[in-house]
From TrEMBL:
A GO term, aspect molecular function: ATP hydrolysis activity
PANTHER family: CADMIUM/ZINC-TRANSPORTING ATPASE HMA2-RELATED, CADMIUM_ZINC-TRANSPORTING ATPASE HMA4-RELATED
Annotated InterPro entries: ATPase_P-typ_cyto_dom_N, ATPase_P-typ_P_site, ATPase_P-typ_TM_dom_sf, ATPase_P-typ_transduc_dom_A_sf, ATPase_P-type_domA, Cation_Transport_ATPase_IB, HAD-like_sf, HAD_sf
Cellular component terms per the entry's GO annotation: plasma membrane
Signal peptide: none
Enzyme type, top EC level: translocase
Native organism: Clostridium pasteurianum DSM 525 = ATCC 6013
Record-annotated HMA domain positions: 4-73
Alphabetical list of Pfam families matching this protein: E1-E2_ATPase, HMA, Hydrolase
Reactions mediated catalytically: Cd(2+)(in) + ATP + H2O = Cd(2+)(out) + ADP + phosphate + H(+)
UniProt keyword list: ATP-binding, Cadmium, Cell membrane, Hydrolase, Membrane, Metal-binding, Nucleotide-binding, Translocase, Transmembrane, Transmembrane helix
The protein's name in its UniProt record: Cd(2+)-exporting ATPase
Membrane topology: Multi-pass membrane protein
Amino acid sequence: MDAKKKELILEGLCCPNCAAKIENKSKNISGVESANMDFVSKKLTLEIKDENEIIRILDETKDIIKKLEPDVKIIDTSAKIDSTNIHEEASANKKFKIAALIAGVILYIITFFLSDASTLRLIVSIAAYLLIGGNVLMKSLKNILRGEVFDENFLMSIASIGAFAIKQYSEGIAVMLFYEIGETFQDMAVDRSRRSITKLMDIKPEFANVKVNDSFKKVHPEEVSIDDIILIKPGEKVPLDGVILEGTSMVDTSDLTGESLPREVSSGSTILGGFINQNGVLTVKVTKPFTESAVSKILDLVQNASSKKAQTENFITKFAKYYTPVVTLSAVLLAIIPPLIIPDDTFSQWIYRALVFLVVSCPCALVISIPLGFFGGIGGASKKGILVKGSNYLEALYNVRTVVFDKTGTLTKGVFKVTKINATNNFTEDELLKYAALAENYSNHPIAKSILKCYEDKYGKLESVPNSHIAACKVKAKCQNIMPNTINLKKLKTSSSAGKISKSILNPCKNTNINTDTSNYSELAGYGIKTTVNGKNILAGNLKLMKKENIAYEDSNTIGTIIHIAVDNLYAGYIVISDEIKTDAANTIKDLKTLGIKKTIMLTGDAAKVGTAIGNKLNIDEVYSELLPNEKVDKFEILYSMKSPKEKILYVGDGVNDAPVLARADVGAAMGGLGSDAAIEASDVVIMTDEPSKIVTAIKIARKTQFIVWQNIIFALGIKAVILILGALGFANMWEAVFGDVGVALIAVFNSMRALNVKKL
């Protein structure tokens, strides 16, 4: 049974430590398969085993949230709730808090003009303290009553009350004041970071102009159906995937691909949701519903990327769980033991030092900045047309030391052309091409398409065979056809019947004069095609197929993919098909080695001489050729077993044929192309532009992100350690302790936002 996913938005959630506690406690609810609290998007995602248990589990989850964060407003994303009142209430609470803070600051300033020993100063100090820190005190009290003691509210309350107890009124107020100011700036920084990341994926179209009778009506994209006709005006976002029926325009694809140069589209072109129409008016026929469109899938990927956490994130969450109680216990021991064993030292002196311990012990800087850093890296990658499905994959990219490539469609363009036709045994070149086209007519492989394209260029445009007819032919179907060697097609091209005849050549059932039997059609993975047409058994494939069928063949030293043809067990010749290397492939291999990648490898099903030639041209370290799909997996398993445990191996493929290897790799990167559903499903990283050089960019972004994350860890723990030591020795006061908490958190948050900037890598 598939787990049911439920999502809750926690509006007003501002405590990262509490967010971690909500996640941990939600995981322990009976019936919950997994729980993930994304502090950046304020979203709690639950996977529930039994659909019948959803109501109970949601009620228990809401109870946990209310106990930890009573002021948070819970929004169920599956329910249509008007959030206007929630936002208005939050805005009113914020205004009240700011007003109380300002009043408290005014009273705090007044205390400096009053006598130290006067009762009035004490009263004004208490009033200032309550106005500034009343909210923190109330939260602390509520949490204590619920059994939740060790959080930042408790720490600040104890520290400030302790300062009052030893008559350090100014410092007690200062702790609360700077904590509240720091928290306000911290919230602003986090919100800014959230907005920056969200803005990157602001590609969701808001409306579609759908044709209704003879006019166009503006509707939500989710209301549009397949085959509906929509109108896209200049400046509008393309709302859904479709095919252009009328119009020519330039479209901005940067939101999906990261490419700045606009792309020209016209009648017959495929266009995807998320593009921006720049100048022309386009009439488009919708080919996919909004939920299956490219823009919808991309949004879902990026928005849910934070659910797959990096090991560093998980470590910090566990670290924070134990860090605060340990430091708090240390503070208690620091307040009690030294004055008992050190002569002339007072309890007030060591209590003050213990209070410094309490103030600086909050782990918020780590709990906030690390997820923000990873999410910023994912957002930055999306700006470059690189979709990373989770923080764990971004972290794994940092440790990649071996990169394995597929050849076709990855390092080469996958656009094949027939470059040579070599007929033998009394077959003509026309006959050889005819038989190859007949064999390949039902295949969607790029090589098959290149043979059909060559045939069409010689004998005219061909119509596609309907899928239902193909299925029938695979069993046995009596169809009509004309063989190209029975008629002078060049002369017919000038006659009125040329179109009809050329279309009928490979499109059965278009002519009623000649009978053709097409049967026993089968595609043999890793070999080629075997079929029967007009009683003639046709084989079209590689040398392995010829050997398998015991056909005496003629080998060739020509560089390219060679398709051997046999008719009735007699070798007819071969066709050479060449594929172009991508323009940035050579620089990709070179740049990977510059980055310190130890080994680059290519796995291909192509002939050894083709694989070796391309490998040498690109300077790839190892090339393994003539591999069947299952042999690719076996070879990859061997390569995988040779790496060290800390090193990661990256596989780059086309996302369809390479799905098993993509799934096996530490990181699978698919040359997905725009709208490639199979690529998006199969891989961990999707390269939207089909450029292998984006692999280099992805690794650079991963390394930059990891560097920023570790900067934050070292900086936060380093500053806290220094202040803890200085506090214990009596050299640090409350002011430094407040900086060690909220100041460090603020700096770490701003540092995390650097991960979004990927202009210079």
